[in-house]
Amino acid sequence: MLATKCPSCGAVFTVRDEQAGKSLSCPKCNGLVATRPATRRVEPQPAAAEAAEDLAVPAGPPPRSPAGLRRELAFITIRQRFRTLCEKVHLGSSAGERVCVALIIGVVPFGLSFGLSLAMSQPALYAVIQGAASFLLTGAVCSMLAVGPSDERLEARRASILGDELPAALAIDRCRRLWKQDQEAKLKMLAESEERERERETEACPYCGEEIFAGVLKCKHCGEHLDADLRRRRAAELGMRGSRPSPGTAAILELVFGLFLGTFGIGHFYAGYVGNGLLALFGWWVFVALNVAATFLTCGVWGAIGIVLVPTCWFFMLIVSPITAASEASAG
């Protein structure tokens, strides 16, 4: 049954569904009344329901970020290259033999640090402590590359990241960005429609007490999200940002190790840039070794230059390396 109103006398009467869309006479004033055509209800199609089920988010732990997967892939690559180096020098492929190789490598910075301290007329105890610290640090880093998962597990993990996890993480990250842009566009349209309203009720913000329009999603005075969904989403975004490396921690690590142990690269390791950390670590010791070698080869002639050049470069690294490590941590 459909309700119809007579335009002449204003009487309201009902007509049957089969009479919809026809011209009928009003039972009160006998005027001609044109009824509306019947509207047909559209039922949801099974295909649409199946598509909605396909779009449902599966339960389970959240996927890892592409940056985290890239850091893990870089660490796996460095481990594989270190183990390949151990096999090429025919020192064995077991974990114990690889640890021995790591300790042998640690002797190099020990000798360089010890010899440099003696060349700069430092106390013998200070030279021993600095050399031992360089040895332990280098040996620990190389031992970490030598032990751990087997070569087969590393290769399987590398194939899993490159084949499945990294492409999926990149696709999810792109979908999140598109979804965020879509939500921002919807919020903008909602704000524009609310501004066109002539009369609006106001209320006090529960956080700052300022007067705001009723039903707004965010307070324009204090910036707090008043909608529960937006607050949960904002808290989730802040939690994801908190899982990133801290730029301050990266800079402090780089500064402390460089100031007291004469070693650089730890802050880069913490920020996830292992390649840059190794470059800073071994690059500094190679530079020091070249200066020591030049001093001995020139029978002390280069020593006057090296005494000025090495501390100057060390001071330069104390400034530049922490800043670079902090920038890498900020970039994620």
Question: Can you give me a brief rundown of this structure?
Answer:
With 332 residues, this protein is mainly alpha-helical. The protein has helices spanning 46-54, 66-88, 95-119, 124-146, 151-195, 228-242, 247-260, 266-271, 274-297, 301-331; strands at 2-5, 12-15, 23-25, 32-34, 202-204, 211-213. The strands form three sheets. Strands 1-2 form a two-stranded antiparallel ribbon.
Low-confidence parts, pLDDT < 50 over ≥5 residues?
40-60
| Share of helical residues | 55-70%
Overall tally of structural domains:
3
Write down the overall mean pLDDT.
75
In the sheet with the most strands, the strands line up as 1-2
Q: Describe the biggest sheet?
A: 2 strands, antiparallel
Count the helices. How many? 10
- Supply Rg: 36 Å
- Coarse structural class: mainly alpha
Topology as a string of helices (H) and strands (E): EEEEHHHHHEEHHHHH
Q: What distance separates the N and C termini?
A: 65 Å
Number of strands: 6
Shape: elongated
DSSP strand content: 5-15%
